[in-house]
Amino acid sequence: xxxxxxxxxxxxxxxxxxxxxxxxxxxxxxxxxxxxxxxxxxxxxxxxxxxxxxxxxxxxxxxxxxxxx
Length: 69
Prior knowledge:
The protein is mostly helical.
């Protein structure tokens, strides 16, 4: 697990951009599809969680695949 923490520490300067970018994408996409404010917020929150979850799964998969390289 120390290798994973080192990986996050090395990329710490760029990983902070993931959350605002995912939030902006999900808000713009939801606002272009729906008109009601509560529906926009609900759908954008769900999409934000989906994007961040998918990116986390890809990060873990790449970390496992590059474990002993």
